[in-house]
Amino acid sequence: MAPYYFGNKALVTTAKLLLLLTVVTLTARELSAAGYGDEAMKARHETWMAAEKAHRYEVFNANAHLVDRSNADGGRKYRLATNQFADMTSDEFMCMHTGFKPLSSSSGVNKLPGFNYENFTLSEDDQHAFDWRQQGAVTGVKNQGTCGCCWAFSAVAAVEGINQIVTGRLLSLSEQQLLDCSIDGRTNSCKRGGNMNNAFRYIINNGGITTYGFQNVPADETSLVMAVANQLVSVGIDASSQNFHMYSGGIMTADACGPTVKLDHAMTVIGYGTANDETLYWPLKNQWGVKWSIGGFMMLERGTNACGIAMAASYPIP
Ligand SMILES: *[C@@H]1O[C@H](CO)[C@@H](O)[C@H](O)[C@H]1NC(C)=O
Domain Cathepsin propeptide inhibitor spans what residues (predicted)? Predict the structure, then answer.
């Protein structure tokens, strides 16, 4: 009985295997016919690319018109260019390259009350302009890539700055650590964006260079000048306008921002300045790489709270 049984089982197994082989062969042949062969897949990819290219062309066309119209307007203090972001819609750009989340509550752990620089008076030399780049407190422009982590770069730039001011050493610090180890993964992350104050908090709690706390700057540009004269300041900003994405130099004025200011991006204020024609501006460090604008920095009009620059400003206290 036993040999017969095993023989039978072997027979059944062989039959099953044959059936399976047939099915597999048929499936492969069928799939190949349906388009999984190299040639068919290439054709399918070409069709896909043609559709994507047509869509990108439409977006580029609209953006190129926007750039040319703006540059043809002799009254504008800033210039735009069909740069590497010129085939992206504003929404696509905002999803990929910004990531600032305003905090609803003004209180919070490690946030110190008051404003340390409220009684500060600018020296005669520093009345019109000051730039932390000239003091060696600004590291090279970085690139946040396709990650909503502007908040990490802005916070790190402010911490790199205060570290240089206090110790005299300019160290490039890690945004990646903030991304990996953020205290609140739900609100501070690559996908969902975050806030610089949470980043300062993380650095403080983990014995980083900033061990004391951070303060918010009162929401006016006079206070912001006082703070910036003392150290680099992290700011939330409305960068939703395509003018921002395709900015290529000059002083960006308030008309280039959205009609209603909604803080959605973070940058670092690295000084304040006055142009030859007396236009006041903020030099800002961004993190969209060095190909954006001129070397990755920008100038934004000062004195009109352009793009909400003074609305969510904060700095770490060493
Ligand atoms: C600023 O000056 C006022 C009045 O003298 C004083 O009460 C306040 O503590 C000062 N603020 C700081 C941060 O030193």
Answer: 45-93
